Amino acid sequence: MEKHIVIIAELRGKQVNPVTYELLALAQEIEQVNPMPVKVILLGADVEMPAREIADASGKAVLAIENGHLETYNGELTKDLLYDVLPALGPVFILAAQTTQGLDFGPGLAVRLEAACITGVNALVEKGEGLCFSRTSYHGKIVTHVLSATETTLLLVQPGAFRPIEEGGEGFGASGDKNLRRGAQKNEIDGDFRDQV
Amino acid sequence: MKILVCIKQVPDPETIFKVEPASGRVIPEGRLKSWMNRADESALEEALLIKETVSETVVDAITVGPGPAAQVLERAVGMGADTGVHIFVPDENIPGPLKIASWISNYAFGKGYDLILAGVMGEDHMHGQVGPMLAELMNLPCATSVIAERIDPAAASVVVEREIEGGQRSVMEIILPAVLTFQTGGNEPRYPTLSNLLRAKKQRALVIPSEALPIVQDREKTVGADYPQKTRAGVFLEGTVKEKASRLLDILEKEALLF
To answer: Any chain A CB within 8 A of the CB of B235?
Structure first.
């Protein structure tokens, strides 16, 4: 199975939360060290326009998952939907923002996926042991470097830590695929998304 | 109603820490002052407020850590908790959030807790993971960043108000049993009373060695520690007032501070 970096994009109302472009910036840094394709997942009640916006800005494939119950954020449904689609993507790194949403669904999703979970990520650090992620603790007085011990790692990325990618996805490979799938309800995804994403 | 509150002893925020160059361990300078993590204290206060309004409510407090960590249990009982439970771990082994959640879930499983409350994040390691991981391990619904809640014992549900970005609040109803993690600021934690403190001194906490509980191993490892580098300089905006305002607006939008 092809391995991926998967970004969980976030909406604020009907707009793309700008922190999504910071997640893409971290994905770009990881790609440079550990090359693998990047996929973006966007969940919501009506996500075609924001999904197109992310695809246009990044040049990356966006899997848009629509569900009428996601008009407002629902942590349990978010975890269920992500758990349905993520294993088939072979995620090595799953990137989400450390917002109230990310902190709500991220740690539980990591447990369900048997993945490592590193929160408050603010930098990528290369060490002898492999890719480490930097985070602060003790009210920002100490920086620790954390290494994952599993095949899949869910990273909650500190907003503001990475410079967001620019419009057009500069540095993201001009030939990036811009697949966009619309209208996927939870029950429809399992059957066909593998072929289309 | 039966409530379990997860509490933690954390260092005073004024503590200065240093990194041991050889081991990479983070150690405090001087005598360490500790207290109950403030978000956990808010969670405990909510449990005690529920106890005051819902009859026959029992509040247990649980902590994971080395010997001195039990001091927070005394304070919890002093505030009004019924009993304290201490999952004892040796000092040298700082467990990660998954291990802590695993121990607590193993303790709590089958004991009939209607609500498990915790702080949204520990002030020391700032992981913010134990509550939602505990919910997942116990297959319970979870709401994080809760600022207020209203229990409906008849419907076996709780309506929670969550604090989200941009000063907004979201409201949801959750069926019990459930796990809630609390922000600070939603209540004013009470001081322990003398009579309760005396009760806490007499009433020993239930101590469970961590080795007695099955665990899920942590899936990440801290391999080093350092001091933060100051990498950001201030930005001076130039131009007319209108240009400066426009540039400031642009920066705030890019930093995800405005929507």
So the answer is: no
